[in-house]
Write a structure and sequence with these properties.
- The chain is built from ten helices and 14 strands.
- 23% of the residues lie in helices and 23% in strands.
- The protein has helices at residues 7-10, 115-121, 136-150, 154-159, 183-191, 255-258, 289-297, 299-305, 345-365, 382-391; strands at 61-69, 81-89, 98-108, 123-124, 128-132, 164-168, 210-211, 214-215, 218-227, 230-241, 276-283, 315-327, 369-370, 376-377.
- It has a single domain (23-385), classed as L-amino peptidase D-ALA esterase/amidase (4-Layer Sandwich), CATH 3.60.70.
- The two termini are 13 Å apart.
- The strands form four sheets. A six-stranded mixed sheet has the order 4-3-12-11-10-9, sandwiched between helices.
- It has 400 residues and is an alpha+beta fold.
Length: 400
């Protein structure tokens, strides 16, 4: 059916009872045929890697645990639960080395543990984890214990003493004060990592998140990067929980201003003011820590491309690392030799492009979700967005 014919229907505010949350359909695994932004004809600059995911960076592995249970009124400690954890091993689960890294904070109303270590030493050891705000401590403790059980090199274990855990707030849908992410959930994510396709939307740490007041938190994308010194890959994973509807831009088109319905439904709990995004940038290009900090800073430009104004109550925190510059953890016993590209412009461009697409992929993958006290966030209406982009001559043809 022509999407133009559906426009009037979608513009009506549908009654909440028409939306059924299919909890069993949401898991930490990708759907058989997940729909992504490019599948819908949304245009993006740059050439993605084979998976168009952060795992296009060779050796990198991602794992998730998704926690969805309960319906109805909030009962702290019992639910409803709409949360989870996402983990990233820069060099894969079995690696006993670190990587060169740098981070940048655009807005500081958020947390990324271990970032002071990254600032001081320019390196990152062990996994990165993304979760909800009040589960940071539990996830950090679980990673410490997992490392104790699995890391065989004493100096590497010591280097992992300050795990990197970042967060965004999912308290609109999730019983966040119940702190439902437990050690077993973190272990499940750490033990089931892979280098294949990455699930998006309401999965892992992004399960209960909202993006421009639509559903969807986890998104990823990648770019092939050509330089005078060879070809490289850059990948991005975001946990997005930010943005006001009227600001949303897709391919430069003010989509949010044209979709003024399907706003979050508030039950007994008001929609929070704060909003945040965590961006993880990986590349196999040889970059030193100061260059990686510069790379992380460019994610800010991608937020502007999708319409964010950097709201005061937002935690916008970005981390970049290079798998080409490995950091051994033999403290005082070895010299780390680092290589660096002289020109970062192609990587700057790739960072902005991949971050923008990862955010929109998170939106596209989001599914309507009802949480605590009947609070509901709706999925992005794909056909309506296609119609709006078509009106602005920004929709690309897609294979049938």
């Amino acid at each position: 059916m022509n999407p133009l014919n559906l426009n009037a229907l979608y513009r009506q505010r549908l009654a909440p009872c028409l939306f059924v949350l299919l909890l069993s359909a949401l898991s930490s695994h990708a759907a058989a045929d997940p729909v992504r932004a490019r599948d819908l004809g949304f245009p993006f600059a740059g050439q993605p890697g084979p998976l168009n995911a952060i795992t296009d960076v060779s050796g990198l592995e991602v794992g998730m645990a998704t926690l969805i249970s309960g319906e109805g009124s909030l009962e702290v400690g019992k639910g409803p639960v709409r949360t989870g954890v996402t983990v990233i091993f820069p060099l894969g689960q079995t690696a006993m080395e670190g990587v060169a890294a740098g981070h940048f904070t655009f807005n500081g109303d958020g947390e990324m543990t271990g970032s002071r270590f990254v600032d001081e030493f320019g390196e990152l050891h062990g996994p990165i984890a993304l979760t909800n705000t009040l589960s940071v401590g539990a996830v950090m403790s679980a990673i410490i214990e997992w490392n104790r059980q699995n890391v065989t090199i004493e100096d590497e274990l010591y280097s992992r003493g300050l795990p990197l855990v970042a967060e965004t707030w999912d308290g609109f849908l999730n019983d966040i004060y119940g702190q439902h992410v437990k050690q077993a959930d973190v272990f499940r994510a750490l033990d089931t990592v892979s280098g294949g396709p990455v699930a998006e939307g309401n999965v892992g740490g992004g399960t209960g998140m909202r993006t421009f007041q639509f559903s969807g938190g986890t998104g990823t994308a990648s770019r092939k990067v050509q330089t005078d010194f060879g070809s490289f890959t850059l990948g991005v994973l975001v946990q997005a929980n930010f943005g006001v509807r009227e600001e949303l831009l897709i391919a430069g088109v003010p989509v949010g201003a044209e979709i003024t319905d399907l706003m979050p439904l508030e039950g007994a709990r008001a929609e929070p003011e704060g909003n945040s995004i965590v961006v993880i940038i990986a590349t196999n290009a040889p970059l030193i820590p100061t260059q990686l900090k510069r790379l992380a800073r460019r994610a800010t430009l991608a937020l502007g491309r999708v319409g964010s104004n950097g709201h005061s109550g937002s935690g916008d925190i970005f981390l970049a690392f290079s798998t080409a510059n490995k950091m051994t953890a033999y403290w005082g016993k070895d010299i780390n030799t680092l290589n660096m590209l002289p020109d970062l412009n192609p990587l700057f461009e790739a960072t902005v492009q991949a971050t923008e697409e990862a955010i929109i992929n998170a939106l596209v993958a989001g599914r309507t979700m009802r949480g605590v006290d009947g609070n509901t966030v709706f999925s992005l209406p794909h056909e309506r967005v296609q119609s709006i982009l078509n009106d602005h001559q920004r929709l690309e043809p897609v294979d049938p």
